[in-house]
Amino acid sequence: MEHTTATNKDILLAEDDRDDVMIFELAIDKLNIAHQLRHAENGEVLFDLLEERVPDILFLDIMMPCRDGAACVLEIRKNRNYDGLPVIMYTSLTGNPTVETCFRNGANLFLEKTNTVADLVEKLRKVFSIDWKNYMHYPPLNQFVLS
């Protein structure tokens, strides 16, 4: 398992919906940051890709085949190989039980999906404004959902 050292952001998106992947790709491109975007279409592929290389940041959908995102983040937090990996929940599921489960399981932020690229760009700007390399951001529950 290798960690990246290049100046490019190594971004891993775990998402099974092709439309959501496309919107995410468009938004990331509009941020004008050097990046490599890898994609896992389910929870099993996610762990295969994590074993290949630990990304700089992981965006994780909740409702995926094989393993759901809430279970994946819990498993990630139990594995010392992934210490320091920022996990951003990226989902259309909202509501207190879902948010609280992801918070308790160790996610760093909760990002609600949007249907517009412009809205997602603004949310992603906030995510990438955090210095994840030097500061592992765990906000309190009332600041966990990024709006």
Structural description of this entry:
- The chain is an alpha/beta fold and 147 residues long.
- It has one domain: 3-Layer(aba) Sandwich (Rossmann fold), CATH 3.40.50.
- Helix content is 37%, strand content 21%.
- The chain contains five helices and eight strands.
- The protein has a six-stranded parallel beta sheet with strand order 3-2-5-6-7-8, sandwiched between helices. Strands 1-4 form a two-stranded parallel sheet.
- Helix 1 packs across helix 5 and helix 3 packs parallel to helix 4.
- The radius of gyration is 14 Å and the shape is globular.
What topology does this entry show?
Blueprint: E1 2-3, E2 9-14, H1 18-30, E3 35-40, H2 43-52, E4 53-54, E5 57-60, H3 69-78, E6 87-91, H4 96-105, E7 109-112, H5 117-128, E8 145-146
Parallel strand pairs: 1-4, 2-3, 2-5, 5-6, 6-7, 7-8
Helix pairs in contact: 1-5, 3-4
Brief summary of the model shown:
The protein is α/β, with parallel strands linked by helices. Helix content is 37%, strand content 21%.
Q: In the CATH classification, which architecture applies?
A: 3-Layer(aba) Sandwich
Our count of helices gives: 5
Order of helices and strands: EEHEHEEHEHEHE
**Mean of residue pLDDT values:** 91
The total of beta strands comes to 8
CATH H-tier superfamily:
Response regulator
Beta-strand residue fraction: 15-25%
Helix content: 25-40%
- Main beta sheet: 6 strands, parallel
The structural class is alpha/beta
Report Rg.
14 Å
Shape: globular
CATH-derived topology? Rossmann fold
Distance between the termini: 34 Å
- How many domains comprise the coordinates? 1
Strand order of the largest sheet: 3-2-5-6-7-8
Report low-confidence residues grouped into runs of 5 or more.
1-6
CATH class: Alpha Beta
